[in-house]
Amino acid sequence: MLNGAKRWIGNAEIADVLIIWARDEEDGSIGAFVVEDPRNTPGLEMSNIGGKIGKRAVWNADITLTNVRIPVENRLAKPRSFRDAGKVLILGRVGVAWEAAGIASAAAEMAIAYARQRQQFGRSIASFQLIQHKLVEMATEVSLMQMLCLQVTNLIAQGALTEGLASMAKYNNARKARYVTQLARETMGGNGLLIENHVARLMMDAEVVYTYEGSNEINLLILGRELTGISAFT
Ligand SMILES: Cc1cc2nc3c(=O)[nH]c(=O)nc-3n(C[C@H](O)[C@H](O)[C@H](O)COP(=O)(O)OP(=O)(O)OC[C@H]3O[C@@H](n4cnc5c(N)ncnc54)[C@H](O)[C@@H]3O)c2cc1C
Q: Distance between CA atoms of 169 and 150, rounded to whole angstroms?
């Protein structure tokens, strides 16, 4: 029987199958349990979380499980520990690092195109040194984000990616996506505040990326533990 609550679960309300990670109270192990047909499962309630400022195309649900019965064969055979759950998160964090790079790259491209065509004081704003500084910062950070992603992705192929390096990619790129999207927004002045010009939307998407797949604080602590051999988690 599954009991508990989960928050922010992506696309849960439209999923045909849910995989619920939960602790087995009998032996303390962590397991992954497949819930088939979740919308028609007694004891399982889902509700959409409205009012999200970023990544609005994705639905996120609050889920409560009250004595949800599933067949014993629906427990996945291999996952038995928190470390096993962590293996899923490691790959997820690399994916989110790529996502952050994509968000930043789109914002930088939009800002460069805007700066080239926007005229102020009879000149393109791209001709102002302070604007070029923002454009160079954005282009440089995006390139660094992409290179870090390439590196950790190659490490996956070599079977050499560590938990800490996956966290490093997510930690760095989530922060940099915030920075780059804000610079892009600034570059576009008032027009950067309009949803129709997309950069503000990317800025809000970067806020979501900053918090999910392990908040930045948690990824920092994972990398800190790997670097020092000492856990600073409380
Ligand atoms: C849009 C969105 C989509 C999501 N999708 C999914 C999903 O599909 N599946 C899923 O399982 N989860 C999902 N999540 C959940 C996400 O992983 C959590 O929101 C995230 O882990 C942070 O947890 P929290 O929101 O409860 O914040 P809290 O845990 O309340 O944290 C609040 C603040 O305290 C900090 N903090 C917490 N604990 C510590 C600590 N020990 N040391 C230092 N600082 C700490 C956090 O870093 C954060 O800054 C999603 C979240 C969002 C916002």
A: 10
Specify the residue with its C-alpha closest to ligand 1, atom 18: 212
Closest by CA to 149, choosing from 202, 93, 110, is: 93
115-162 pLDDT, tens digit per residue, is: 999 999 999 999 999 999 999 999 999 999 999 999 999 999 999 999
Reported pTM: 0.95
Classify residue 54 by its DSSP letter.
Answer: S
Domains of the chain by start residue, with CATH = 2-74 (2.40.110.10), 82-228 (1.20.140.10)
What whole-number distance in Å separates Cα of residue 62 and Cα of residue 5? Answer: 7
* Residue nearest atom 25 of ligand 1, based on CA coordinates: 211
**Which H or E element spans position 7?**
strand 2-10
Measured distance CA(222)–CA(214) in Å, rounded: 10
| Tokens 């849960």 belong to residue | 12
Are 145 and 100 within 8 A, CB to CB? yes
Q: Which of the following is catalytic: 163, 213, 217, 226?
A: 213
Are the CB atoms for 49 and 60 separated by under 8 Å? yes
Q: Is 13 a catalytic residue?
A: no
Cβ 9 under 6 angstroms from ligand 1: yes
Start-to-end CA distance of the chain, whole Å, equals: 30
Residue closest to 91 by CA, chosen among 7, 143, 169, 23? 169
